[in-house]
Structure formats: C-alpha cells, structure tokens
Amino acid sequence: MGSFFSKEPVNRPTQYGASYGSPEKPTRKRKFEFQGATPSTIESKTAFSHPRTDEKTTEVDAAPDGNVHRYIVTCSTIFWCTRKDIVKLLSKVDDMPPYGGLHKITKWDHFFIAFPNEKCAKLGVDCLSKNEYRGELWKVRETTEHSAKRMRIDDTVARSRENTDTMAKGVCLSAADVTAKWRNVGYEEQITRKKRKWANALQLVTKNLHREIRKEGRIQWLDDLRRSCDKKGSPECCPLVDVLRAEKQGERNFYRNKNEFTIGFSPDGCGMGHKYHVSELTIGYALGLVRNGQVFVSPVDENCSTTSKASIEVAKCLTPVLRSLNMPPYDKRTHKGYWRQITCREGVRTGELIVSVVVNPFDKDDTEIEKRTTREADGECRTAVVEALKTYFGTNKKLGVFWQTSNHISAVSSDIPALHLYGIEGLHEEICGLRYRIQPTAFFQVNTLMAERMYGLLGDLAGVNKNTVVFDVCCGTGTIGLSLAGRAHSVVGIEMNESAVEDAVNNARLNGIQNATFIRGKVEHRIHDAIKEVPGDKDCVAILDPPRAGLPMNVVAAVRGMRSVKRIVYVACEPNNFWKNALGFLRPRSKAFRLEPFRPVKAYGIDLFPHTDHGELAVLLERNGVQIA
C-alpha cells in the first residue's frame, strides 16, 4: 500500500536552475527526492545548498542514509492551512534543511514531513520546534507510516463520537444494525422496497441500451417498448413477473449458514485516550469501516435475526474464554494484536458445525523472545478454544475446529491454509435431495432453504427438460448444475478455479450423477470446445450466476457467440450492475458480438437475504424472434 509520505518533491524545476521540460530536470529514481536537491547532488550524494537565495543559506549533506526520518508537526492554528501554505511557511524558516514527503490537508491541526538522513532530521526538528504560527509554537515528534494513518483514523473516531445524532447519519449502533437493518420493517414492506430496486435495475437496462446503440442501429422491440411507455423515464426492459418470498421461519430468520465474526473491543468504556482492556474483548460485528472512524465491535445477540443460532452460541461460548487467555484482539489502526476473526459454517440439514479461528501470529517488529512467547501462548489458546467448544456443545452436534494464521494488514483472505484441530474435517449439506461436501473456504449460498427454491425456479425459468443441455457458466462447486442434472439431458460446468472444479467433480461422484461434466479453464477459451460435443438436436441453455461485479465482457461475448444457445438465465446478486452485462447480450451485431442478440423476456425477484436491502434478480433472455431494424 502506498504511503502519503512518498510525494513528489516540494520544490519546482525552476528551483533546480532549469525550466519546465529541461533535460537538466532530475529523474525520479528514489521514493524520496528532497527539497533543495540539485541534479548533481542526487546522483553524487554530495552537499548542496538550501533553495533559499538570501544570506541565511546553509549547506547540509542530503544523501539518504537508508532510513527516511518521518515527523509529525502539530499546531492548532494551522487548522485551515493547505499544503501550499505550509510550504510557504517553511520557506521562511531559518536554516531549514532539505525535506520531502510533506503532507497536509485542510482541517488538520498537524502535517507530516520527512528528512533524508539523521543529520537533516536533527536540524529540521530544531528549526521546526522554534517556529511558531499566530503565536503558537509547533510541536514536533517522530512518527511512522502506520502511526500517521492511525492519527487520521483517530481524528475520524473522535469526530464521530462528537456526533450525538448517529442514527441520522447512518452510523450503526449495534451488531443488528450491521447485519439486519430491516429487522423492524414488516416483511411486506421489505418486499415492496426490493421491488422498487429490482424495477430500477430493469429500467437501467433500457436506459443504457438506448443510449449505447444510437450509432449502431435500432432494435425493434426496444423502440416498441419505449413508445408504449406512458410514464416519464425509461420503462423496465421486461416485466417483473413475481417474487420468490421467504415464507418459512428458517428461510426468513436466523438463516445464514456462514457467519464471520470480528474480534475486537466493545465501544462501552473504551473512549479515545483510554487504555483498552482485555475485559472489553468482544466477538461480533464491526460497526463500520475503519476509514470512517468505526473501530469498535458490537457483540452478536438474538437481535441479529440473520445470524444462525448456532453461530450466536459459539460467540457466547468463546467470549469469556478469549478474555481469560489475556491475549489482545487485533487492532486495525496499529496492526497489532492476536485475535482476528471467527468463522462459523454449518449444515442446516445435517446439523454439522465448523468453527475456524483466525489469529495474527506475531508482529513483524517483535523480538525473537516475544515471538517465542507468542508461539507458546498460541498452543495454550488452541487447547482452550477446542476444550471450551467440546464442553459447550457436547455430543449434540457434529463439530470441527480449524486454526488459521493471517498477518495481512487488511481483511483476512479467504484462501489462507487451515489447520485441523478437532472433529470433522469437512462440512456436508443437503440441498435439492443431493448431499454436498463443502470445504471450509469454499463458496456456498448462505441461505440453504431459499437457495434450494431458487435453483428450482432457475430450472423452470430456463425450461429444462430431458432434451436440454445446461451450460453452468462460472459454475463454482457446481451446485446449480448438479441440482438440475436430474431434469436435464446433461450438464456442462465451466470454472477457472481448480479447487472448485475438484469439489464439483467429487460432489457429482458422491451423488452418483453421471450426466454432469466439469471443465477447468477460462470460459472464453473452453466454451466453444465444450459445445462441439453437444448433439445438434439438443436444446441448449446457459445459466450465469456471476459475482456482484458481473462477468468480464469477453466472457459475455463468448456466451453470446454460442450459436446453439437460445436461452440464457442470468442471476444478478447485485441487480444494479446487471445492465453492464445485459448490454453485451442485447446490443446489435458488431465485430465483437457477431451473432444475433438476445431479448429480455421476464424477470423474477428472489429474496435470498431477508431483513436486509439485498436481493437477487433472475432474468430470462431469449434469442428467438429478435428483429433488428
């Protein structure tokens, strides 16, 4: 991650004795080029003069010593100063040595500055400490990249604490506000709101398609649709036929089969400037983004109506255990601490539960003795966690415990190795009459019961029968294709991730499915080879269930280029992004899209995530009957 200390030098080319564009202008060969450096001094590391031209000039060796010395200068009267203002002030400081990496933003009562070596740093600190602005002396202290970032975050935290009307600003006050912010909204009202969102997603297709094809030609159905619309704005590209609602208790409440808990400090009793205590350690959900000043964690409880009850029990079980072990949670501001995250995955129908604990092994600046102490404590923590879970759940639940270590500064990666500590080594789930083995880090729909109904809807929407070949594009572990294999002639899944393909093959074998084939590779490279194996009299349909960002356009072009595919069912987990891929399927022929375009026929809303503002949108696209004007 880049640092704001690695800025261009403060001085301009004219200060080097060269005009803009002159070949004498020094090239940027280092992370820092400090103010006052001439071309010769940068290359030869010899002494040079300060850029000031008055009689108070001083010569200092500006050769970097390998350690860039960073400092923070604080003064309340520079609150409204910009970076240019600070540069102007520093130009008036007597004997100011070369510096770089100056960073100042309006409404900061501080700025950051860096010096090339220790000699410059000592002289610079001495000069800055004697300087004053509007009657207040500057306070200087050494800092680092991380502490600079922490100060910015702390400022944001302090401002957020001063805001008493937090709910009006959209700030979450509890874990339930993070995970189930519509929990107090009636279910019919939730569906009404989501219908508006789905309708807006369909309108975006019409709006952007009309705008995009102005120079490419006209599409007859689009013109007819726009003429028939009697309201302002763009009409929906196709009707929203119905909504797949979460009717049953297990579909609507406590439905998530995967829950990721953050381990951190509770906001209670932990004000800014106070020392954090392990007694405040909490397992729950972060109240917001660190960059927005939300660094605390709210405990998970029964008000989190999307979190499974078993996962809530895990958090209740482990909270006192982790507190008793006297190891601090990971602090995202300082990047120090031990406990990071707990992930719970469960089989709703099998009753199996896997708990994965993620820790930070040790800090990179720790001494060997500190690292050895952390390793010894690590073993004690593993034993305590396993024994606590075994005692709490007993023999009533099939339990597995995994241990993961991650020293990533940002979010924990999903593919870090997992060490098996106890119990079952893999999770099983049953859906659509099939049994799936799910790896601890593999993707699986979080609402098992609604996913089962959604797969049935996709099969109906695609018109799958014994004469149908289903292409499961970007199939992942193959759950959609395998769930439709019993209704179809055959299923062909294409996926780039090798481990996901292995899971799909193993799940097909586990269920005795012989009419499903899974191919590893990029869709645009393998799809045409796959379709050559399909008999010419078969009805071909493609089902696409991409990530939130959608599919790359070359994948869209490859799917559209499958001549035998007459229907596409597109499942958009972020409906407002659907139009980006839809344009590739619907626009007129071109060099990039050679075959006939598709046409949207109908759409269904799928309430896969009750009590939240998220929902999936399934759209049927057909190639037959499209008229190009």
From TrEMBL:
Upper lineage: Eukaryota, Rhodophyta, Florideophyceae, Rhodymeniophycidae, Gracilariales
SUPFAM superfamilies attached to this UniProt entry: S-adenosyl-L-methionine-dependent methyltransferases (SSF53335)
Protein's name in the database: tRNA (Uracil-5-)-methyltransferase-like
Residues given in the record as S-adenosyl-L-methionine binding sites: Q445, E495, D545
Pfam families: tRNA_U5-meth_tr
Family: Belongs to the class I-like SAM-binding methyltransferase superfamily. RNA M5U methyltransferase family.
GO BP terms in the entry: methylation; RNA processing
Annotated keywords: Methyltransferase, S-adenosyl-L-methionine, Transferase
UniProt cross-references to InterPro entries, sorted A to Z: SAM-dependent_MTases_sf (IPR029063), TRM2_met (IPR045850), U5_MeTrfase_fam (IPR010280)
Catalytic residues of the enzyme: C573 (nucleophile)
Region Disordered, annotated ranges: 1-60
Skewed-composition ranges (Polar residues): 37-47
A single GO molecular function term of this UniProt record: RNA binding
